[in-house]
Design a protein that fits this description.
Layout (H helix, E strand, L loop, with lengths): L1 H21 L5 H6 L6 E13 L2 E12 L5 E11 L5 E6 L3 H13 L9 E7 L4 E8 L6 E6 L5 E3 L1 H24 L1
Antiparallel strand pairs: 1-2, 2-3, 3-4, 5-6, 6-7, 7-8
Helix pairs in contact: 3-4
Length: about 180
């Protein structure tokens, strides 16, 4: 009986630890918005939206303010409203945006000779688990692109859509910089 209780206790602790890991806030803006015992103001603004073959991708700016002390956090929400898939979204901190724009530019220009091996996968990942992926096998003449939100299935994109996303991320950088200067 003691052995069964020990096994159940260990199993329960393992489940509790897994549940805690899945509920961890990954970005600074999410942690900022999780503050308690204060009024948190969340502002949103549309940066851009584009129709892709897989659905509509939207980028919104975010400004979060702690009313008790006036401190602020900035970022964006990138959302995919798929035609045959549920809505998926990721929150990105403002300091992730320039590296993301650079990563998207690199992925859009990548060629099969990036690796001496027959196949490659190149990936840019944000703190929130959003991934942009380029994949190719030498037997393929083209590069395949994907966007993947956290643990959801990856969604196919084309080169033009990667370039368009890079442009929208650049617009987000400019919009957040303007917002910060105006305050």
């Amino acid at each position: 009986m003691r052995k069964l209780i020990s096994i159940l206790t260990v199993a329960g602790l393992a489940l509790a630890m897994h549940a805690q890991e899945t509920n961890v806030l990954k970005t600074e803006i999410e942690n900022f918005e999780a503050r308690t015992n204060t009024v948190i103001i969340k502002g949103f603004g549309q940066i851009g939206s584009a129709s892709f073959g897989v659905g509509t991708v939207s980028i919104r700016s975010k400004e979060t303010i702690d009313a008790s002390n006036g401190s602020k956090a900035y970022g964006i929400m990138l959302e995919l409203d798929g035609q045959n898939a549920p809505r998926q979204q990721a929150i990105l901190d403002d300091f992730e945006l320039e590296p993301l724009a650079n990563g998207l530019e690199y992925l859009a220009k990548i060629t099969s000779d990036v690796s001496a091996l027959p196949s490659f996968t190149a990936e840019f990942k944000t703190r929130s688990g959003l991934r942009f992926i380029a994949h190719s096998g030498r037997r393929q003449s083209s590069i395949e692109y994907f966007i993947k939100f956290d643990e959801n299935p990856r969604v196919s994109l084309n080169t033009d859509e990667i370039v368009q996303l890079k442009s929208m991320v650049g617009q987000a950088v400019n919009a957040l910089n303007d917002l910060k200067r105006s305050r």
